[in-house]
Amino acid sequence: MTKRSLSSIIVLLFVLCLIVSGCGKSSKSKKKEKENGAIDITIQDEECYAIITKGSGNAYNDHIVEGFKAIIDGAGKQTFVYQPEKGTAKEQIQVVRELIANKVSCIAIAPVDADALDSVLQDAIDADIPVISFDTPANPDSRLLDVNESGTEEIAETLIEAVRDVSGGQGYWAIVSSFSTSANQNAWIAAMRELSEDDKYKGLGLVEIAYGDDDYHKSYDQTISLLKKYPDLKVICAPTTIGIQAAAAAVKDTGKPVKVVGLGLPSEMAEYVSKGDICPYIYMWNPNYLGQMTAYVSMAFGNRKITGEEGEQLLVDNHQIYEVRKASDEGTEVIVGNPFRFDKSNIDEWKSVY
Ligand code: RAM
């Protein structure tokens, strides 16, 4: 079978899945709406909310999806979940095209590459399908709002402070990031670089940024290379859940006196954090809650309750108000929370939560 016919079969199966899952609009109802000219208010649109993560095989993404589904299912609406197997922009683009054809109620996406997704996401917006991003922002002109896990500056400051703390303020450090095209990672790294100009961090020297593409083996190999290349390395900062696990394992396997800090899941990092020698603490927010917020925001857009304009106030669970603010990329965002610290004192309590 040729590659082309195989991908046609995959697309066909995908469309069938959308229809079976209730996310497809039948041509019958479309025709009826068109025939009459007037809006048939007796036909209720089936609401279907789509979530597209950066890739499968990442527990962080699974927790987001779980939170998203819980809220949408609870509201009695349909969800469509897509986690690209290879973690490529190409896979995401193909799926967005299908979602446009099926006129879903809202698309929530964590773009692997915001520039590559830009045009297809704009096509969705032009087709009157709201597009929001979560985890990592889509470009300002191809999203209505970004559901940002935490402020860029807050994350950057938390991470560089950790580097300063575990190094004693002196020495070389390196970053093990996820994809070189990840807008969230790049924004955090740029903000860390800016902060490192401060006198407070003048004893620190950033030697390299390596990319593990949210792939455990690649992140592990990248860490091994860093350890070989820089024998004086003191700290590795990995602002990715996959990267931090791989970096800690590589440091453990080589026995090098290097500390690892960054963003990790308590469930995946407990073995290191409870010992504290390689990794004294990690930071993270609740990914399940990020998924829940993404679901609330998706439904609000799907029902045209909000526009994503700066200053809009979003009330969640009758008590919590989130204000839409201008993001550093000039688009708009809503900030879900702050990075939370997990160390020896609380990691056991949290490792079974996420
Ligand atoms: C990884 C992803 C995600 C990042 C988290 C902390 O799983 O790259 O984008 O925000 O880690």
Task: Give the topology.
Elements: H1 3-20, H2 27-36, E1 48-52, H3 59-74, E2 78-82, H4 89-101, E3 106-109, H5 114-126, E4 131-134, E5 145-148, H6 152-167, E6 171-177, H7 183-195, E7 204-211, H8 216-229, E8 233-238, H9 241-254, E9 259-262, H10 266-273, E10 282-284, H11 287-302, E11 313-316, E12 320-323, E13 325-326, E14 332-335, E15 340-342, H12 347-350
Parallel strand pairs: 1-2, 1-3, 3-4, 4-5, 5-14, 6-7, 6-8, 8-9
Antiparallel strand pairs: 10-15, 11-12, 13-14
Helix pairs in contact: 1-4, 3-11, 4-5, 6-7, 8-9
CATH top level assignment of the largest domain: Alpha Beta
Overall spatial form: elongated
Q: Domain count, please report it.
A: 2
Count every helix, treating DSSP H or I runs of 4 or more residues as helices.
Answer: 12
In short:
This protein is an alpha/beta fold and 354 residues long. Helix content is 44%, strand content 19%. A hairpin with a 5-residue loop joins strand 13 and strand 14.
Structure description:
By secondary structure, the chain is α/β, with parallel strands linked by helices. The chain has two domains: 31-149 and 287-323, Rossmann fold (3-Layer(aba) Sandwich), CATH 3.40.50.2300; 152-284 and 343-350, Rossmann fold. Helix content is 44%, strand content 19%. It is built from twelve helices and 15 strands. The protein has a seven-stranded mixed β-sheet with strand order 2-1-3-4-5-14-13, sandwiched between helices. Strand 13 (325-326) and strand 14 form a beta hairpin. Alpha-L-rhamnopyranose binds next to helix 9.
